């Protein structure tokens, strides 16, 4: 999906000048980005860049310091508790570790959002759960316990649960982390399939470059709480920005250390990042 | 979502219209099972359905299974592209008999 073709697509998430803190420490600094209808937006960055934190804010799980966030056209600051609850039902989350309940069967884990949020008949819920397990190629596994699944299967079961309500937006935190390349690639294919068949908008946080380049329509590159660039795979690959180059070429952090910045960090002072060409 | 049920040529035609989603699928399920309960072949006309979610598809699955249990038939007619994608995603296009039109569906269940 070329970026230019997407300019006019509806935006399912809009973020303007988002600033967040943990205590006195600024974590995200002036984030402005959007996620368009039906696109896969990958958030990429090194460890500690703030990508998982940004994901939690995009899911409206945390309270921001300042800035504007609109999800599916609704400013989250204007929502009542009920409206917020209804909005959440349109969002699915596949957590990094799967986060399945160990005391529930795989099928009951997948059905859980339906139990919590709908009044559907049990027979309908069971069919929906089995359908979603079939989609993630776990058909027939509904009676197993999570402890009987491999790491890749747990991730897929988590995807089934995240999708069981047919969310408008799916969030995935490090879907490929800890998986062997073949299983990771199959999960990437699953993400593409869900987008294509169900028209979902999908936000994926990953540090796996291969995965990011395979699935992304656009990539947001984060570095130390700030956006370095937002662009298509081709644009990111072609970037002349030194930090993006280092990220893509896995240059260790020590080799890229800025002594002035390090000193400022040690002494608790704010370091002003200079403008770098993209 | 609304539905219209009529009998024609020895079969029941149930036409669903509008979106079939978490809110409306219980009504769709009730209508579909009521049609199956007439113990006649059922043609589900989906030409008026703009969007069908997983709960709507699950209602179709349950109705198909109910029809098979009593030795009857249930076919889908005029399935939209979007609905077909949802069926394909769960490989249900291999499970349902899908016809281009209600007329073709009626022919199929004869």
Could you characterize what this model shows?
The complex is a heterodimer of chains A (278) and B (110). With 278 residues, chain A is of the alpha/beta class. Chain A contains eleven helices and ten strands. Chain A is 37% helix and 23% strand. In chain A, helix 4 runs parallel beside helix 6 and helix 5 packs across helix 6. The N terminus of chain A is likely disordered. Chain B is of the alpha/beta class and 110 residues long. Chain B has one domain: STAS domain (Transcription Regulator spoIIAA), CATH 3.30.750. Helices cover 41% and strands 32% of the residues of chain B. Chain B has a five-stranded mixed β-sheet, sandwiched between helices. In chain B, helix 2 links the parallel strand 3 and strand 4. Chain B is globular, with a radius of gyration of 12 Å. The termini of chain B are far apart. At the A-B interface, helix 5 and helix 7 of A face helix 1, helix 2 and helix 3 of B.
Short description:
The complex is a heterodimer of chains A (278) and B (110). Chain A has 278 residues and is α/β, with parallel strands linked by helices.
Shape of chain B: globular
Can you write the helix and strand succession of chain B as a string? EEHEHEHEH
Q: What level of helicity do the residues of chain A show?
A: 25-40%
Quickly give the CATH architecture of chain B.
2-Layer Sandwich
Order of helices and strands of chain A: HEEEHEEHEHHHEHEHEEHHH
- List low-confidence stretches of chain A: 1-5
Number of helices of chain B: 4
What can be said about the biggest beta sheet of chain B? 5 strands, mixed
Query: What would the CATH topology of chain B be?
Result: Transcription Regulator spoIIAA
* Average pLDDT taken over every residue of chain B: 92
